[in-house]
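Lecture notes, unit on protein representations.

Consider one protein chain, 481 amino acids long.
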Amino acid sequence: MANIVLTILHLISTTVGGLFRHDSTTGAASVEFWVAAATTLLLIKFAVDSIGPRFSSQKYINPAVQLLRILNHYAVSYTLGLMPPSSSHQGTVANAFFKVWAVLIVTMQDSIRIGRPYQPKEMTLVDMLTSLWSANQLRAKTAIHLRVPLWLMWSIHASRIVWYYITSSAAARARDDDMKLVSDYMAMPTQHTSNDANPATMAGYKYIVLGEEKLKQQIKVEPPSFTQTQLAQEEVITVEKVWSQGSSDALLGEAGDSSNRFKDVCLSFALYKLLRRRFFNFPIHEASHAGTRQLVVDAILDDKKGYERAFRVTEVELSFLQDFFYSKHADVFASGFPCVRLLLSLLMTAAASYLAYAVHDMPSVSTGLTAKGRLARISHGVFVTHCIIAILVIRELWEIIVHVFSQWTNVLIICSYIRLRGRQGCWIQGLRLWMMEKVARIMFWLIGRGRSRRDRNIRQCNLVMSARTGSIARVTRVIFR
């Protein structure tokens, strides 16, 4: 055991020493060091972005985050700029590592930003030029076992930039339109809540869960009174429709969902869409309706297990709202399940894994003579490459896990189940219903297992009194401890 620890410490010390060795081609640290530094900065940026909502209100954190983004951009650009002068015209192993690192750090630069909130304007011309700059490195002569995975990774990377740019712009427009449609829909009291609504069975509660985009051609303003009228909707999933499934239904019936766990996720999603309007100054039309109070008092709060259902519905509702403001879930799921996005992540993971295999038998130590007669040296090429690939693969897998195992996926599964159940079909439809039921139960079990007990704690803090003390750190400790 002691020998293993000593071996690991020796490997770390020699790696760090090799990275900080002076390089005559750059006049300072080697290209290998700058690749490791750029990767570290990108990893720190991803970590800060992942917990960004907790720091967004702090006075001194936001400038630090902006500075970190600037450092990331210049670190990647500077590292790419060092590679051509440090390359050898003799086609050494160092040149091959430079090509691999150029593609990896550029891919990682955009990969860490894909899952976070960003506006289309952030996909600037400079970022596209950086991507083309890395492609220029691949134009030189490269071994076939490296050329295939590198060009494959760059192609996936370029396709993903274009795809995300288009879908993000379209999703942002659709998000605003859907919010306005929900507001217009709720402005018609006879549509969203019946006068004889029953909170026990949710009959009469037509709060939209999914499919408000179907109302775009159905809501009309007709003269002479110019009041809004709505045609019948079939593809729109409402709270009433979720609860109206037969009692014998395997997934949403009394036997299959006696505690309303599956149906309550749809209720939380509908309430999230109503709550979201407050942040955009849309009127809350249903606030004065008697059925709204009955829903809260006689359904959500009136539970045999006490507080459990009220807190469960509120917890999921606020999780949707948090995802809307501090993640890309609302944009990612705007057009349904993100199959293309996850497919690109899987392809990137496969290409990166193949690249890790392709470089494993390359010599880690390499030297090359540049055009100016200087000696370029690489001391731990394979180790550094494998570390970058591991970070990239973990990041891609994290992207898949975050989106697949989310409450947004649960809502889509249940709504798809309801739509499929309402159609007449052959035995294949029955098989699909059975499979969707099993998938829904597995997903709910996995998401429920992954939830922390800390999420069920509620704490209070007087922000006014805490701010008077001038201690921002104290407020943070109270809220997030």
